[in-house]
Amino acid sequence: MIDGINVFTQNSIRMEKGKVIYFDPFRIDQEWKDADLIFITHNHYDHFSLEDIGRIAKKDTKIILPEKMRKDTKRLNFLEEHIFYVKPGQSYQVDEITFTTVPSYNIIKPFHPKSYGGVGYILEIQKVRYYIAGDTDLIQEIKEVQCEVAFLPIGGIYTMNYKKAAELANLIRPKIVIPVHYGSIIGKKEDGIRFRELLALDIQCELYI
Fold it and tell me: Which of 106, 30, 19, 112 has the alpha carbon at shortest distance from 64?
């Protein structure tokens, strides 16, 4: 289920599953120019980086962004027909990839208010559901997510910390969980180990950081 997956820094993820799919590309180290699809969760600099998008985009790359980011796409060098806007809590299909958007926001913290329109994504690829949570707290809407593989932020401050992320994982019970959004800008590398120690024994945890 996780063959062909790489996690870089923050929420930057690359999947090679028939198509090459990126989420929130950030600090990409070379000119890959191989993206078929790019998914963006919100417009903070470590999730919507024009420089990094430029390193992975090719002529026919398609990009999926929250509806609230319409003004931000003026800075993209993409054809209009290659830009797709999404709203939380909806289902879509782009290039034969079926996905659902999930709300992603902070409850009390000011960094990602619900009105901001950030999203997480659940992609179904080869009958496996991959959940990329984005920058979120442990909100009610994500307690009902069903997936086989979950990418959960654990760094705290701007997102869930490792304790809340483990609580969510133990609630939604993916087969595999991969912690993200820690070990660089915020959150210690050791948080991944602490997160893993709190998981139920039947949940596999993969650490990329």
Answer: 19
User: In terms of residues, how long is the chain?
Assistant: 209
Q: What is the DSSP string of 87-119?
A: -TT-EEEETTEEEEEEE---SS-SSS-GGG--E
CA 192 to chain centre: 17
How far apart are the C-alpha atoms of 45 and 98, rounded to whole Å?
27
Alpha helices in 127-189 (DSSP H): 162-172
Statement: residue 103 has pLDDT above 90: yes
In angstroms, the CA 37 to CA 81 distance is 13
d(CA 29, CA 175): 30
Return the closest-CA partner of residue 8 out of 185, 148, 138, 142: 185
Collapse the DSSP code of 21 into the 3-class scheme (helix H, G, I; strand E, B; otherwise coil) and give the result. Answer: strand
In the chain, DSSP finds a helix count (H) and a strand count (E) of: 3, 13
Entry pTM: 0.97
Residue 209 has pLDDT above 90, yes or no: no
For the stretch 73-86, what's the b/e string if a residue is b when 16 or more beta carbons lie within 10 angstroms of its beta carbon? beebebeeebeeeb
Whether 89 shows a pLDDT value over 90: the answer reads yes
pLDDT of residue 156: 94
DSSP secondary structure code for residue 67 in this structure: G
Per DSSP, which regions of the chain are E strands? 5-7, 13-17, 19-23, 35-39, 57-66, 83-86, 91-94, 97-103, 119-125, 128-132, 149-153, 176-180, 204-205
